[in-house]
Amino acid sequence: MTSPPSTFPDVEAIVVELLSNRPDLADAVVAETPPAGFDGTQQAVIVSRRGGAWVDDLHLDRPLIELEAYGPDKATAHRLANAARAELLSAAGRTYGTNLVITDVVEADGPRWLPEYLYPAANRYLCVLIVSLRIG
Question: Which listed residue, 45, 50, 112, 115, has the most CB atoms within 10 A of its CB?
Fold first, then answer.
């Protein structure tokens, strides 16, 4: 039996890097936190780890990755959500560093329209994907 790593890979940074290279997200901020002055109407994709689980026998980290896509209107937010999820869903097989491989990506929820209470003027779609990362 192996042990889970004392720290998990920074999957948020990995996903931000993946999405930042996608041409149809070039006009959007792609980050782990909203930029200064953010009010929810700018084009942005915010990436967050929302839990997940360590699968010991497979030596996998399986985080839930939440993508929040914002735009000046509902159609733009929807387009950004679809572009972000398409990029992440196509990431299986990519290697990072010398010991980290994305083995699978599965959609768990979304994209779905979700009101934003922190930013009342926001147009937001949210989706959640399960990313399987083999370590070692």
Answer: 45
Collapsing DSSP states into helix, strand and coil, what is residue 66?
strand
CA torsion 40-46-52-56 (nearest 10°) is 180
The residue written with tokens 């010398």 in the block is 98
Token output for 48:
């967050």
Q: Mean pLDDT of all residues in the chain?
A: 92
Cβ within 8 Å of residue 46, ≥6 positions away? 31, 32, 33, 34, 67, 68, 70
For 12, list phi and psi in degrees, rounded to 5: -60, -45
- Both structure tokens of 126: 């949210």
Q: What is the predicted pLDDT for the residue at 3? A: 60
Query: Partners of 133 in the beta sheet?
Result: 61, 102
Record the pTM.
Answer: 0.92
